[in-house]
Amino acid sequence: MSSKLSFAVIGCGDAGAEMWQGIDAASPAELFMLMDENPDLLGDLAQVYAVPTTTNVEEALTHADVDAVYISAPMEQRVPLGIRAAQAGKQVFVENPVADDLADVGTLMDVCGANGVSLGVALGAQVDAGAAEARRMIRAGFLGDVVALRMNAFVEGPRARRRPMEEAEGREALLGALTQQVNAARWVTGMEVAEVYGGQWSRSEDAETGGIAIGAVLDYDGGAGGMLQGGWNLPGGGYEDVSGPRIYGTRGQLILAREPLVYFVEAPEGGASQSWQPLRFSGPLGDKEQMVERFAAAVLDGKEPPVTGADARKALGVVEAIRHSAESGEPQTLPL
Known about the structure:
The chain is an alpha/beta fold. It has two domains: 5-125 and 288-305, Rossmann fold, CATH 3.40.50.720; 129-283 and 318-328, Dihydrodipicolinate Reductase, domain 2, CATH 3.30.360. The protein is 35% helix and 24% strand. The protein contains nine helices and 15 strands. It has helices at 14-25, 39-46, 57-62, 75-87, 102-114, 129-139, 167-189, 288-300, 309-328; strands at residues 5-10, 29-35, 53-54, 68-71, 91-94, 119-121, 146-155, 193-203, 211-220, 225-232, 246-249, 252-255, 261-264, 276-278, 332-333. A hairpin with a 2-residue loop joins β11 and β12 (252-255). The longest helix has 23 residues, at 167-189. The protein starts with a strand and ends with a strand.
């Protein structure tokens, strides 16, 4: 393997577009090939990026000059493609959500392990400098004891989008948003969800008027309580509700938004007490470039990626437990 990790991108839709730009910008990585089933899309991309393109997924998975694949194909294809890539000896980097089934994520983890390749997932908290500072503050006790968490994720549907979105695509987008929030909360606080009680409401007879809503009460292993709510294609979405986990402590509160905010009852030296202020941190945000940067650097150094299949499985497990609780009407204990 060279000093740079050579990537093939499989699936060049919206998520793929952001990631191949991240690959192109990340110093320990290089973009080698773009693969998509749409030849017209590839034709447009070939005018921008001077790399080979192909509609043949086997070529991307087996090319001798490809070290790693980034998989942003539709969710139901990600695990099968990841398995084939691992069996071909390629490092595997997968868009979130990896799958909607815990067993499938476990299978991909096992196959990657058996073939001696890394499995990374495009979740942002572990590579975000703001989240790292929030994690440091919590561990230093600046928020006191964490007593409550609240997460919300509202995804636009046909009501608000120019491009029509099918229900299956909406469910995938909502699952991705929810698992991003759950992952961020667990990584920053270091606490795991122990039990959930949740329900789901869905009406989808008409794509324009249908919608999905999900809500749950969470019990954390440290004794804190939590709430999670989300929805797709709901009238008004999440108007004025800042997206990002809220972490309530006995001495302050954090909002893990794109630009994090913090409130201290008694601020540490140099801070302001009893007022909201931006969380000060140095370093890059957890965007696609940082996800690639950290994944590629870890693989080249022979280390574990910053976001692993186990991280993705834990976040997905919370959402799956909510689904089981909604179906059974009973609380669900984690891990499933």
